[in-house]
Amino acid sequence: MKIGIVLGSIRDHRKGESVANWVLDVASKRTDATYEVIDISQFDLPLLSDEVLPAMRHKSYDDPRVQAFSDAMDACDGFIFVTPEYNHGIPGAFKNAIDLLGSELNGKPVAFVSYGAAMGIRAVEQWRQIVANFNMFDIRPQITFGIFTDFDGPKLTPSERSDKDLDGLLDVLVPIAAKLAA
Ligand SMILES: Cc1cc2nc3c(=O)[nH]c(=O)nc-3n(C[C@H](O)[C@H](O)[C@H](O)COP(=O)(O)O)c2cc1C
């Protein structure tokens, strides 16, 4: 069982890196799955311009950068999207990354860890609508952080309660991922 922690900000000095690493630290104490950060900035992904719909590509892409991202996502049984909120919505680069894919996501569960001036809640509500198009199962428990209260510069300063909340989220996500994978 493998859960991908998808880091969806590509900005210099992004806060998202610290959030994704915290998710990995807490999750790695568990024995129910392996956990890996999938950092979209590492794939140098192009803007979607392929005339063939990604869903019709069946996980086989001409662009090696997209293929590498596809392979990384396809290897996962479920996901945690680590998402900031930009302009009351989801980050464009993250949406583009997901737009590049098709069946790698289909029928898999996804949970959300969000952050922003307003905790990223609006971004997650948008993500829940978007992932429905892949028949993904969005998990109800959600972790939120405020950039004015939960960070020291770019570094996340999570409370013990956040660690427990994340464990609770994983208690829901992982069994569903296992059932769906079976
Ligand atoms: C272009 C842009 C728009 C933003 N708009 C919002 C917003 O609408 N609501 C919000 O809560 N935070 C907003 N923020 C604040 C971000 O949530 C905050 O900068 C956060 O650190 C971004 O994540 P990152 O550092 O991982 O990229 C915005 C930030 C940027 C760069």
UniProtKB/TrEMBL annotation:
Gene3D superfamilies associated with the record: 3.40.50.360
GO cellular component: cytosol
Domain NADPH-dependent FMN reductase-like: 1-148
InterPro entries: Flavoprotein-like_sf (IPR029039), FMN_Rdtase-like_dom (IPR005025), NAD(P)H-dep_reductase (IPR050712)
Molecular functions (GO terms): FMN binding; oxidoreductase activity
Protein name: NADPH-dependent FMN reductase
Organism: Tessaracoccus aquimaris
